[in-house]
Amino acid sequence: MAKKTRDPYESAPDEIINLRLRMPAQLHHDLAREAAQQERSLNSEIVHRLNMTFNADFIAWRADAVLRDRAEREAVKRLRETPKGQGLIDQIVEELRSKERKR
Questions:
Q1: At what angle do helices 56-80 and 83-102 cross, to 10 degrees?
Q2: Averages of pLDDT over each 10 residues, the chain, 103 residues
Q3: Of 53, 47, 7, which Cα lies nearest the Cα of 31?
Q4: Do 85 and 79 contact (CB within 8 A), yes or no?
Q5: How far apart are CA 37 and CA 101, in angstroms?
């Protein structure tokens, strides 16, 4: 009788699988540093980050952030089209620079 081979892409939801992974050295360094700061193993850090990307709340938050960023860019673009708007932008930039100098 022939041995039944298992499809490597089929597994139970609670099953832990082994995965060999190649990545750039700098990414490995960055992940290892972050794992140490978070007091996690490198494996736990990678699993944590992957889970965040598939979490519905994270996906919704990220989509909202992208939309906000686009809306803000469009608002600034529209402001720059008028002298009054450009003056407002210049004023805000100067206030921010002034605060930076005081630090």
A1: 120
A2: 68 81 96 95 92 84 88 91 91 91 85
A3: 47
A4: yes
A5: 31
H-state helical runs in 1-103 = 25-37, 42-54, 56-80, 83-102
pLDDT the model gives residue 10: 79
d(CA 64, CA 22): 32
Amino acid letter, 72: E
- On whether the pTM is more than 0.85, the answer is no
Token pair for residue 11? 């597994």
Cα distances (angstroms) measured from residue 35 to each of 15, 24, 29, 44, 54: 23, 17, 10, 8, 19
Structure token digits, residue 36: 């140490």
Q: In a 3-state reduction of DSSP, which class is residue 18? A: coil
